Every structure is written in C-alpha cells, then in structure tokens.
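--- STAGE predict ---
source: upstream dedup step, 1 unique chain passed
mode: sequence only
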Amino acid sequence: MKRLIDLSFSLILLIIFFPIIILISFMIIIIYQSNPLHLSKRIGVNSKIFLMPKFITMKKNTPQIATHLLKNSDKYVTKLGKFLRKTSLDELPQLCLVLSGHMSLVGPRPALYNQHYLIKKRKKYQIDKIKPGITGYAQVNGRDNISLKNKIKLDNYYSKNMSLKLDFKIMLITIIKIFTIKNISH
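--- STAGE serialize ---
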C-alpha cells in the first residue's frame, strides 16, 4: 500500500509542480550558467550508495560535507538557493526517485555518504532497512535544529512505528512546516 501511495502522490506532485521545476531549471541555467541539478552521494536501503538529485543551491567551491558542518554556510548558498531551501523546492527532483522506487515520500532522510556516525547508528538500529524519504519523522520534529543523536532516536521511533497513519501525519506536518518555514537554518 505504501508503494501505491508513493507512486500516486509522486506522479500527481510531479504533474502539479512540472511548470515550477522547468522554471527553476531555466533560472539556474540562466543565472548561474550551470546544470540545474546536483547529484549527491547518499546512503539508501541496506546502506547502498545512490545519487540523489537536488536543485543546485550552493556555489561550485562548496566542500562535500553536510551543510550544518560548514563554517559560515551562508557564504556558500546562492541567493536563489536560499529561497529554494527555505521553501524546500530544491527537493522537487527527488519525486522522480520516489516514482522509480529508490526513495519514498516518507522515511528517514538519506545520509550523506560521509556521515559515518549516522550511517553506523542507522545500521545498528536497522533503520538502514527502510527506504529513505523526501520527508521523515526527524524532519517534522526539528529538521535542521536537532542533534544527530536525536535524529537517530526519531528515525528509530519511525522504524518501530511505521504505518500509513503515521506517514499521512508526517506528510501533513511537512506541508504545514513548508508554509510556516520553521527550523530551517541553511
């Protein structure tokens, strides 16, 4: 049932957001003379690396580490990137991965390939057995303002209590948080 919901919602969202996806792509191409997508090495199901697309929001010289680990991360984020991040529009290309089955709408956010502590703890609690999501329980309970330790606790809670009811609750809270733009630090 979860897969059917992922397919239905991602297809509907891709159709709705298609004009916005095209507009953002053209804006990035024109303003930054760059490929509009950044493919980030992420950890998926069973700790396998996959490439997760996001709209480019960072400058070309940005180190490949989690944004919260950057000293003065604001100097690396483009002007358009700030808007895309605040509104979560930078995540729209991931709907294609939901459609293809590599991601889910709801699940633990995929770790960067070099977030070794997070990857290790997710393996320990078997959180890595769950398909990563565009949004997740940790994101709606703090997003950028929670520690890795707390994120792991929240991801573990989700893995132990996964249900369609919880997924719908997370999706609803995600929509509310996107429109209130809370807990986004970069």
